[in-house]
Amino acid sequence: MPAASRNSIGGGGGGRGFGINDDVDILTEVLKRLDGRSLCVAACVCRLWSSIARNDSLWEELCFRHVSPGARPVVVALGGYKRLYMVCVRPVLKRLALARPRVWSPVEVQLSLSLFCVDYYETLAGSGPPSSLLFLCNPVNV
């Protein structure tokens, strides 16, 4: 692209316009407002965007739209907010998109996250299929 047209992209007049890559803080604020899929796509734009998209604070922002801030111990155990989003939040959002719209209470979200963690740790141990959640498969007469 010629220098003259490159300078006029961002603003009026002959002066140099503002490019989104000129200020990392503004770019970070813009990326914080994306959903998970869009954030993954943005990470493919260029090296700068990719390095910013790897920042855990962006994924923290994204996770806290769906999970309460009390999940910090789970986040540490899983290895970061991006992993929490990819392994836990994203699959739930996909299933919810297919089902009829429903609002989860904070208690339901916490219970779901807790059960996921129990299953995840038992799977990591590699001692066969998880056994502590088997009670969820069979109805119990009380």
Uncertain stretches of 5 or more adjacent residues: 1-14
Tell me the major beta sheet: none
Q: How many DSSP H or I helices?
A: 8
Mean pLDDT: 72
Q: Distance between termini?
A: 74 Å
- Give the total of beta strands: 0
Assembly annotation: single chain
User: Radius of gyration, Cα only, in angstroms?
Assistant: 21 Å
Q: Helix/strand/pairing class, anyone?
A: mainly alpha
Beta content comes to under 5%
Describe this structure in words.
It comes from Linum trigynum. Residues 24-62 form the F-box domain. One of its GO terms (biological process) is gibberellic acid mediated signaling pathway. This is F-box domain-containing protein. There is one protein chain. This protein has 142 residues and is an all-alpha fold. Helices cover 58% and strands 0% of the residues. It is built from 8 helices and no strands. Helix 5 packs parallel to helix 7 (81-98). It is elongated, with a radius of gyration of 21 Å. 11% of the residues are buried. The model is unreliable at 1-14 (pLDDT under 50).
Question: How is the topology of this model organized?
Answer:
Layout: H1 3-8, H2 24-32, H3 36-42, H4 47-53, H5 56-63, H6 72-78, H7 81-98, H8 106-125
Helix pairs in contact: 5-7
